Each structure stands twice: as C-alpha cells, then as structure tokens.
Amino acid sequence: MKMKKMVVGVAMMALVLAGCSSGTANEEKKAETKPKESSEVVIYLARHGKTMLNTVDRSQGWIDAPLTPAGVEVAEQLGKGLTDVTFDKVVTSDSGRAIETAELVLKNNGQEDLIKAMTKDKRLREYNFGTYEGQMNEDMQAAVAKVKGQSYEEYSEWMKEVGFYKGIIDFADILSDLDKKNVEPGVNWPAEDSQTIVTRLTEGLDDLVKDAQKEGAKNVLVVSHGMSIITLLGELDAKADLPDGGLKNASVSKVTYKDGNYTIDSVNDLSYVEKGAESK
C-alpha cells in the first residue's frame, strides 16, 4: 500500500512539475513576442516636397497636388542626404504628395525595396480646411482674422507673437466654426477643429511607434505635412522651438521614443537636403 501511494505521489509531482515547466516556457515565449517598452524608436518626420498648390499659395489640406519639378528635386536631394540612415519602416499620410515624396526619398537613399511595404495612414493627413480648400491662403486667413477683429496684417503679426503652433490651433477652431454654415451633408467634409486634428495625429504617431517596436524597427521615416508635423511637435513638447513661418518643404524633424517618452532632437532640419544637393 505504501509503495502504491509513493508511486502515485511521484507521478502527481511529475505532472505538477511538467505543468509548471510548460507554463514557464509559454510565458517565456509570450515575453519574446511582446514589444519591449524600453526599445528605442527614432522617427524622421519629413515634410513633403513643394507642390503646384504650394507654388500658387493656395490652401492645401485634404485636397492634393503633385510635386513641382523643384519639389521632386528637393525630395531626391533629401533621399541622397539620408543615405547614411537605414530605415526599417516607412509611414506616410495617404495624400499623394506625401507618398510621392517618400518614394523619391527611398529611390535615392538606396532603399527602394521599402516602397511596397510602406504604410499609408490617413490620420497623418494635413489639416482639413473644409470648403476653404483650394482658396488663396491669404483669403482664408483674412476670413479668420475678421472673426478676431483683425486685419490680415494684424493677424499675421499676432501669429508671430503667440507662436505658430498656438496660432494654427486657434486658427483651426475659428475656421471650423466658420465652415459649419457651408457644409452640405454628403457633398463636402467640414473643416476640422483642433481637438479632432490633435487626436488623430497623436493616435497615429503612438500606433506607428507601437508597430515599430513589435517589428523591431529602430529608424522610421514618416512623411507628412507642415501644419500636422508642427502640431505633433507642439503636443510632444510645449516648449519646443518651432519656426514662426512653419516648416520648409523636405525638412526633417527628428523625434526619439524611449521608455514611454518622446524627445525632440531637431526641428526643420534642412542639412539632409543640403548634403544631398552637394552629392551631385
């Protein structure tokens, strides 16, 4: 009897140990596939090259225009200036000008193979100006200035005083209110308010970082738009030194994500374009 009890006891102990071992192995396997919170992701936020609508100074948010010859050239120069950077992942807005810029960068920095794997995220689009899309920028800004009781010139000076980021956030809310009377359901999209814009942009950035960590991607090229990139930078760091007139076409603003925190390393950097121009 004692012998039987002993055998049963040993067998049960073996099963328990086997279960523990299996559980530990499964936990280790899960740990291997789970993204490491401490893994660093370096984000190269690039503004697209100059477009036909940029050239004629018309508002260009969700509407789109192809790059001009000069816009193509600067995107190519950006790519050549980035040959020392190996990108593991590329994300663009779903606007044609951003996609075209990203493709030109990759063709010129030797990573053309990444074009097919590019992620296109509509959350990274430019501000939506609603029925003011395609209007002269000065006319759109004058309409906003009138609401504030200012002339266009006074409004431009006010923007410089408060800073471009705070200025465009205020601009978005006023334009959104103005555009409500112009909206025709099913015909056009209304201009976005600042909260809508901030939410979609920050969620888009957070998600691309999570994806990068899961994929083990360290360097990520993100091609987006002037006001959208400024908004992201302003949200990441309220004290960031942001240019009064906005970002230059094909400029790069570098951001590092590590241990749950974003750090802005550079803003409106044209050194990659300049380097690429010299490589002819």
Description:
The chain is an alpha/beta fold and 280 residues long. 50% of the residues lie in helices and 11% in strands. It has ten helices and six strands, in the order H-E-H-H-E-H-E-H-H-H-H-E-H-E-E-H. Strands 3-2-4-1-5-6 form a six-stranded mixed beta sheet. The model is unreliable at 1-35 (pLDDT under 50).
Largest sheet: 6 strands, mixed
Low-confidence stretches: 1-35
Number of helices: 10
**Strand tally:** 6
Note the gap between the termini: 91 Å
Q: Give the SSE string.
A: HEHHEHEHHHHEHEEH
Write the layout of secondary structure elements.
Blueprint: H1 2-33, E1 41-47, H2 52-55, H3 69-81, E2 89-92, H4 96-108, E3 119-120, H5 137-147, H6 152-162, H7 164-179, H8 194-215, E4 219-224, H9 226-236, E5 252-258, E6 261-264, H10 271-278
Parallel strand pairs: 1-4, 2-3, 2-4
Antiparallel strand pairs: 1-5, 5-6
Helix pairs in contact: 3-4, 3-10, 5-7, 6-7, 7-9, 8-9
